[in-house]
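User: I'm preparing a small set of examples for a lab meeting where we compare how different chains pack in three dimensions. I only have the primary sequence for this one, and I'd like the structure in token form so I can line it up with the others. Please keep the answer compact; I'll paste it straight into my notes.
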Amino acid sequence: MLLVEVIYRFTSNFPADERFGLTAQLRRCAVSVPSNIAEGAARISRAEYLHFLSVARGSLSEADTQIQLAVRVGLAAEHPDLTMLLDRVSAKLNALMKALKAKHS
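Assistant: Understood. Below is the structure token output for the 105-residue chain.
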């Protein structure tokens, strides 16, 4: 959830002509991360949970790529705190997936 808040603030200064472009896309994939984690947790089977966690991980990777793109094209400055947050969320997500897979084996 914190990641979504930070990304919303990160994109708030993007130009108006990006409202339906990179701003919307980056916000959508950011929202997708906790949404898929929550949806997976509400599922019955561990396999379904892992599937939704995998989708969340893909969305997280997409957000990382889009943040790098925003910096490269000059829409935003480097944001070290956001980079660290992405890394932390990724590590936690990977650890959760690993733990669920270990329980399954």
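A couple of notes for your slides: The chain has a mean pLDDT of 95. The chain has four helices and no strands.

User: Perfect, thanks.
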